[in-house]
Amino acid sequence: MAIIDKILSVNDRTPAEIAKALASRVKARRLEMNLTQEGMCRRSGVNLSSYRRFERAGLISLESLIRIALAIGQDSGFDQLFSQRKYSSIDDVIRQSSKPKKRGMRNE
């Protein structure tokens, strides 16, 4: 498999696949910390049934996900999420206006 195919395959994941992969990584961190699901819930303040659903299906509220990240010391990644625009060419960088937009123009 070529490198470009690997890059494209990462971008082809569904939201459910991304959520399940995230839940799997959280579970791995929990186990590294030698915590039970109940221990994680006590530490994070997340309801046990919500946490179990997260590990099983990847479904959780954003607030609960942040609580879990804080509990296991993995909250720094949230600062990088959506922080910078990704440019596809130097022309995009040049066209970038100095004033931040307040409203979008497309309804796609």
3D structure, described in words:
With 108 residues, this protein is mainly α. It contains 7 helices and no strands. The protein has helices at 3-11, 15-32, 37-44, 48-57, 62-71, 77-80, 90-95. Helix 3 crosses helix 5 (62-71). The protein is elongated and about 50 Å long. The model has no long low-confidence stretch (mean pLDDT 86).
Say how many strands there are.
0
Q: What percent of the residues sit in helical stretches (DSSP H or I)?
A: 55-70%
Pick out the low-confidence regions: none
**What is the H/E string?**
HHHHHHH
Intertermini distance: 33 Å
Strand content: under 5%
**Shape verdict:** elongated
For the sheet with most strands, the description reads:
none
Rg over CA atoms: 18 Å
Strand-pairing-aware structural class: mainly alpha
Average predicted confidence as pLDDT? 86
Give the count of helical stretches. Answer: 7
Quick overview of this protein structure:
The chain is an all-alpha fold and 108 residues long. It has helices spanning 3-11, 15-32, 37-44, 48-57, 62-71, 77-80, 90-95.
Write the layout of secondary structure elements.
Blueprint: H1 3-11, H2 15-32, H3 37-44, H4 48-57, H5 62-71, H6 77-80, H7 90-95
Keyword list:
elongated; mainly alpha; 108 residues; 60% helix
